[in-house]
Amino acid sequence: MKVKYNRVSTLQQSGDRFTADKENYDLVLMDKVSGSVGFKERPKGIELTKLVEDGKVSELVVEEFSRLGRNTGDVIRTLEWLEDKEVNVVVRNIGLQSRPNGKKNPIWKMISSVMSSLYEMELENIKERTTVGRQVYVQKGGRLGRPNKSVESDADFMEKETTQLIVKALKKNLTIREICKIADCSNKTVIKTKKILEKVA
After folding, report:
1. In the prediction, which pLDDT does 134 show?
2. N- to C-terminal Cα separation, the chain
């Protein structure tokens, strides 16, 4: 089975850029989740993992390495697992394959490690630029946070994708710091989720 795996970071992103790919696939999967979430913890990542474990996937196509994740360690573990399962991974933006014609690509490991590191560094740069941008905005009199008199119900809050990730992580008894990294959120959001869960328990 030839599978295409796409990922966008937020619900606001539509994934329209993936429509440029006119290849034929047996299955196309789309995750709307932060790249900091482990591949095997994503909704479609879980689905794909089961297909791979069942030996149903022969080729996995991604637009770029960052679609698999923004954490170098997680991306490398995922690629090693796919290699163990003899799945040919195709990275479209650089035209690289892990197992062309069923044989291991000798430069695959080196290039995948370097590219994954670059994407992780890019994410850190984006976070830094965002933080600086917010600071400048506040210094110029801007105000962050919710508009005045904006009220979100607990039910609406609990339905959010980020909140659902936090709930799953809380059930695994992970620390607040670990959950913040997985869900790409503040500790305030994790604590709020925890309080709501305790309230309805």
Report:
1. 81
2. 43
Q: Describe the strand order of the beta sheet including 59-62 as a list of residue ranges.
A: 27-32, 2-8, 59-62, 88-91, 96-97
Residue 6: what are its φ and ψ, rounded to 5°? -115, 150
Q: What gap in Å lies between CA 63 and CA 27, rounded to an integer?
A: 15
Helix (H) or strand (E) holding 192: helix 187-200
Q: What is the pLDDT of residues 163-176, one digit of tens each?
A: 999 999 999 989 99
Rounded Cα distance between 189 and 90, Å, is: 37
How much is the average pLDDT of 13-42?
79
The number of residues in the chain equals: 201
- Tokens 């696939």, residue? 25
Of 118, 134, 127, nearest in space to 185 by CA: 127
pLDDT of residue 152: 81
